[in-house]
Amino acid sequence: MELKIVMTGPVGAGKTTAINVLSEGRAVRTDVAASDSVALMKSSTTVAMDYAEIPLGDDQVLHLYGTPGQDRFDFMWELLGRGALGLILLIDSSSPTACEDFERYTKAFADLLTARAGVVGLTRTDTAAPDDLGRCAAFINSHSTRLPAISVDARDRDQLLLLVELLLCQLETRQEEQGA
Amino acid sequence: MKERTPRFADAAIAAAAAALKRLKEDYPDFVGAVISTSDGHIVADILPSDWRKSDVAAMASALAGLAETIASRTQMGGNANVVIENDGGKMIVRRVNEGLTLTTVGRTSSNLGMQLSVGRRCVDELRDLKVHDINNKQEVGNG
């Protein structure tokens, strides 16, 4: 079974790292040098997509597409979202704009989230101030999208696989609901 | 993270704008052209005013990024340029250097060879251009 999943989220949330870690370094990347304020955070940025094929066992293959984070690349969000079965949204929980970021991306991918399923991975929880993290988690938990959220280290494959598993459970539940 | 448009140094913008002016003089069949950073910010352009210019710059950046990745993944070396032939005209996207990209737009009737050749001259002229984001002292361009 082939599963197309999109991973999105703001710049610096850890999308490229996560896809690279999940694919054990075999991801297709389109990084270029950052010319703007992103360069203060990291040297390169994704301009088209990241892609990796990840075998999940039981004949399941995950085709994972990572979007660029910046709004100016939102045409890629739409392109990559076509035909996707689910969405993984990574939010940098240490960012002062974490709640706004969540709002922005759930709005941009509203069609996919309504028709399919999504999960949220809260990254950089180790550097987030406890109050900020609590506020961010509370905001997501009380949001109308009702997306399950867990904290995840984008460098840790096991944690990422747990996030993927959570999404697959969500998909299964959604399919059962739609079939009922 | 809040997105902030970079502010490039006036001298770099002037050099890019002058190169685009010469490009248009060399081949009047160009409908437009834009020099943008490799991550999709406009440095200078002569695109039609009714186009969404920032979209063109971002899409050119995505195309060049994908082209380089596919060339590398198929062991075909570097990418020279991306040619898009549309019903309404031809577009060519090519790197100026590591940090900059040139996109030229020709009419349907324009000669692809001329478009490539004149574009290459413009790229040669700008090969050493570096653009400098005044906001955060970040420098992009060759080397």
- The side-by-side strand order for the widest beta sheet of chain A comes to 4-5-1-6-7-8
Low-confidence stretches of chain B: none
Number of strands of chain B: 7
Shape of chain A: globular
Molecular structure report:
The complex is a heterodimer of chains A (180) and B (143). Chain A has 180 residues and is an alpha/beta fold. Chain A contains six helices and eight strands; from the N terminus they run βαββββαβααβαβα. The radius of gyration of chain A is 15 Å and the shape is globular. Chain B has 143 residues and is of the alpha+beta class. The two termini of chain B are 27 Å apart. In chain B, the strands form two sheets. In chain B, strands 2-1-5-4-3 form a five-stranded antiparallel β-sheet, sandwiched between helices. Classes of the chains: A alpha/beta (180), B alpha+beta (143). Chains A and B meet through β2 of A and α2 of B.
Topology:
The complex is a heterodimer of chains A (180) and B (143).
Chain A: E1 2-8, H1 15-22, E2 31-33, E3 44-46, E4 50-57, E5 60-66, H2 74-81, E6 86-92, H3 98-108, H4 110-115, E7 117-123, H5 130-141, E8 149-151, H6 157-179
Parallel strand pairs in A: 1-5, 1-6, 6-7, 7-8
Antiparallel strand pairs in A: 2-3, 4-5
Chain B: H1 10-26, E1 30-37, E2 42-45, H2 53-73, E3 82-86, E4 89-97, E5 100-106, H3 112-126, E6 130-133, E7 138-141
Antiparallel strand pairs in B: 1-2, 1-5, 3-4, 4-5, 6-7
Helix pairs in contact in B: 1-3
